[in-house]
Amino acid sequence: MTVSSDFYDLADALDPADQDVLKRVRAFMDDEVEPVINDHWTRAEFPHQLVPGLRDLGIAGIAVPEPYGAGRSTLLDGMIAMELARGDSSIATFMGVHSGLAMGSVQLCGSEEQKQRWLPAMRAMELIGAFGLTEPDSGSDIARKMTTTARRDGDGWVLDGRKKWIGNASFADLVVIWARDVETDKVLGFVVEKDAPGFSTTVIQDKIALRSVLNAEITLDGVRVPEADRLQGANSFRDTAAVLRTTRAGVAWSAVGCARGAYEHALSYAQQREQFGRPIASFQLVQDLLVRMLGNITSSMTLCTRLSQLQDAGRMTDEQASLAKAVSTVRMRETVGWARELMGGNGILLEHHVGRFVADAEALYSYEGTREVNTLIVGRAVTGHSAFV
User: Which stretches make up the Acyl-CoA dehydrogenase/oxidase N-terminal domain (predicted)?
Assistant: First the structure.
């Protein structure tokens, strides 16, 4: 695709060097990902052969401060997430889990020694990370109902429990596991290596969204973790929430990217598809759909741009991240639906790509906090009253 959907030139907020990074990401997604992703999506397989190309882009941990990351802006990081999702939401999710959740946990909650030990290899994508928080029976209420336990045993810990919906888990080298200390009842973070005895994964089958993301269920059966691998700065769920705050902004950007991808494919289709002797792009109702989509994308992208600017200034709040995630995913859902509508029956064929965006949007709509939960977070901030049960 050569269409641009940055109608207000918001990428101009980046300096020229960062704009070049964004262009390289877009070119990689167009040239390397788009030709192969439908096949992998259909077969529910992750395209491991694309990882070296992602590594060469140098975007893992790009907003992590030096010396362990590139120390670039979170605005650039967000726009990269958008460009990845514009090409494919599964690739964007893979990078969000590795670079945002896993590396972010080490950066925000690790000791200096742990950062030195893990972050350079994760930045080079020599080690791939995953993030184990959600459980089979707990999602939105995980802070209160976490059942995975950590028991101190000598100079280490023993972990028991189950995690679900964990992206990258089946092949990740390092998995950040959040568990409740049986003595203090506090939530702690641990880095578990993939070959640890008692650690096993089962890939979740029959998904209708993000089919190229290998979400897995993790079983922890007496997994021993040395104290040196406990994240030293993770001592309560507030520390977990600090990681989620930053990545929630990234999901909002991914929602913009998913909407942009669907819109750009629909616009290209409208310019080529002829009915009644002329391109359907010349029809009033088709133009109405395109403008509605572009309006959703532009407003969401503007919202996310300001959110990232606040994040770079150290002023972003949970409520601001939640508003961006809730609003952007609702607008994404509308936009991909309109793109499918514009394409008629062809919209459900993978060869036209939009059907994949429609399906994947359902996952982005729900993960990193549902619309309802994010709404209550914002509602509490604006009213001063908590509506949580």
Answer: 18-126
| CATH number, domain containing residue 265 | 1.20.140.10
Q: Residue 64: which CATH number?
A: 1.10.540.10
Identify whether residues 119 and 133 lie together within a single domain: no
Calpha distance 231→238 (Å, rounded): 14
Q: How far apart are CA 20 and CA 14, in angstroms?
A: 10
The confidence score (pLDDT) of residue 140 equals 84
- Is 388 a member of any domain? no
Residues 271, 201 share a domain:
no
DSSP letter for 210, please.
-
Last residue of a domain, one of 70, 92, 123: 123
How many domains are contained in the chain? 3
What value does the mean pLDDT take over residues 328-343?
98
243, 367: one domain: yes
Name residue 152's beta-bridge partners. Answer: 157
- What does the block give as tokens for 103? 């590396």
- Distance (Å, rounded) from C-alpha 21 to C-alpha 72? 11
Looking up tokens 């005895």, which residue turns up?
197
Predicted pLDDT at 254: 98
Say if residue 67 is preceded by a cis peptide, omega within 30 of 0: yes
Q: Residue 214 pLDDT more than 70?
A: yes
| pLDDT tens digits along 172-196 | 999 999 999 999 999 999 999 999 9
Distance CA 67, CA 283 (A): 54
Strands 174-181 and 199-203: unpaired
Residue 334 corresponds to which amino acid? E
Q: What is the pLDDT of residue 1?
A: 46
Whether the predicted pLDDT of 19 surpasses 70? yes
With beta carbons less than 8 A apart as the criterion, state whether 92 and 79 touch.
no
Average pLDDT over residues 371-380: 94
Same domain, residue pair 104 and 143: no
Containing domain of residue 315, as a range?
237-383
- Determine how many CB atoms are found less than 10 A away from the CB of residue 32: 17
Domain boundary among 229, 246, 281: 229
